[in-house]
């Protein structure tokens, strides 16, 4: 028997009411550490130059891909040093997955380990189950919501999303304010930039198991106000992301799916043209080789015929000489 699954969040919760932040007795009043986390800096949106650069990259991506005739080996690894950029244009942040082993896991996003969380999402997945799945490979988490027409709320400010883990519906994800227990966990992990483990508890055994955590560097990629993606990278930097969390509106996902389908069709057309060109070049090479073989065969046949004629003439001359000697 596996670990008990938590009950899914009620789908009847109000869409535009922020859920209440409830605190669980993880840290008591005596063992709770003093909070010294700093507020996150209020950074402004992207400047005009960055917007122009983003538009230029979008136009540049629409150009056809030209495949060079010579094959040049290119290394896809850019070194294993921590701190190297993985995604061009991504925003480097600190992400922490934490929670009691048999309780729902929470995802906290911070600008740095010493800052207050800017985003806390409670996921309908047990902490132990999610961390176990992450040990076997890439975990894809999709948080989808259906926005009302004309709603200008950013996707990250939505109060609730439908949760899909590796394509399977797994309840709901709820955005909430950081509780005292959340801040206590962030305070305990303040000196840790990345790693995983269990937070010791001096107050005795917890009903939902010990508090587990996994902290790593995340890259935040903003597609639009209706699409954001968070990538959690391996510390070595060579094996790709371990976790991909996407927040997307349903209409945005449909539109993105249509764009990806069109791009796949264009890629398939380009690959088909490349295959047909290679087939034509192969047929031309085979035709040239066949002509060369036929030419060599014709030359060999003519040489054999010439030798046969010369041998016939020599035999005739020998016969005439013998007949002349007999007559004499």
Task: Report what the structure shows.
The chain is an alpha+beta fold. 33% of the residues lie in helices and 25% in strands. The protein has four helices and ten strands. It has a nine-stranded mixed barrel. Strand 8 (211-224) and strand 9 (227-233) form a beta hairpin. It is elongated, with a radius of gyration of 35 Å. Residues 1-25 and 70-85 have low confidence and may be disordered.
Task: Put the structure in a nutshell.
Strands 1-2-3-6-5-4-10-9-8 form a 9-stranded mixed barrel. The chain is elongated, with a radius of gyration of 35 Å.
Helix and strand layout, with pairings?
Elements: H1 48-61, E1 91-100, E2 104-110, E3 119-126, H2 127-134, E4 139-145, E5 160-165, E6 168-175, H3 180-188, E7 195-199, E8 211-224, E9 227-233, E10 241-249, H4 250-327
Parallel strand pairs: 4-10
Antiparallel strand pairs: 1-2, 1-8, 2-3, 3-6, 4-5, 5-6, 7-8, 8-9, 9-10
Low-confidence residue ranges: 1-25, 70-85
Q: Which value, in Å, is the CA radius of gyration?
A: 35 Å
Would you tell me the structural class of the helices and strands?
A: alpha+beta
How helix-rich are the residues, as a percent range? Answer: 25-40%
Strand content: 15-25%
Number of strands: 10
> Can you give the mean pLDDT?
76
Q: Roughly how many Å apart are the termini?
A: 119 Å
- Helix count, DSSP H or I runs of 4 or more residues: 4
Strand order of the largest sheet: 1-2-3-6-5-4-10-9-8
Largest sheet: 9 strands, mixed, barrel
- What's the order of the H and E elements? HEEEHEEEHEEEEH
Shape: elongated
């Amino acid at each position: 028997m596996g670990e008990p699954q938590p009950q899914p969040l009620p789908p009847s919760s109000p869409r535009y009411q922020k859920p209440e932040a409830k605190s669980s007795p993880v840290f008591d009043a005596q063992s709770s550490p003093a909070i010294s986390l700093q507020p996150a800096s209020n950074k402004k949106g992207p400047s005009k130059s960055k917007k122009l650069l983003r538009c230029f990259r979008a136009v540049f991506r629409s150009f056809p891909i030209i495949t060079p005739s010579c094959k040049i080996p290119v290394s896809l690894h850019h070194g294993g040093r921590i701190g190297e950029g993985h995604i061009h244009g991504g925003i480097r942040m600190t992400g922490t997955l934490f929670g009691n082993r048999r309780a729902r896991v929470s995802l906290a996003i911070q600008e740095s380990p010493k800052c207050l969380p800017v985003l806390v999402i409670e996921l309908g997945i047990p902490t132990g189950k999610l961390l176990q799945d992450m040990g076997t490979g890439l975990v894809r988490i999709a948080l989808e919501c259906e926005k009302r027409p004309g709603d200008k709320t950013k996707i990250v400010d939505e109060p609730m999303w439908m949760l899909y883990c590796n394509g399977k519906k797994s309840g709901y994800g709820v955005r909430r304010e950081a509780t005292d227990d959340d801040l206590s966990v962030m305070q305990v992990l303040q000196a840790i930039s990345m790693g995983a483990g269990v937070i010791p508890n001096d107050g005795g055994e917890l009903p939902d198991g010990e508090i587990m955590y996994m902290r790593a560097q995340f890259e935040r990629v903003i597609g639009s106000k209706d699409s954001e993606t968070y990538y959690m990278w391996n510390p070595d930097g060579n094996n790709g992301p371990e976790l991909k969390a996407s927040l997307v509106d349903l209409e945005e996902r449909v539109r993105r799916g249509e764009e990806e389908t069109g791009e796949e069709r264009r890629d398939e057309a380009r690959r088909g043209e490349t295959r047909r060109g290679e087939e034509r070049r192969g047929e031309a090479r085979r035709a040239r080789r066949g002509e060369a073989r036929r030419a060599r065969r014709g030359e060999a046949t003519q040489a054999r015929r010439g030798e046969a004629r010369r041998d016939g003439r020599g035999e005739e001359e020998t016969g005439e000489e013998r007949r002349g000697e007999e007559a004499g």
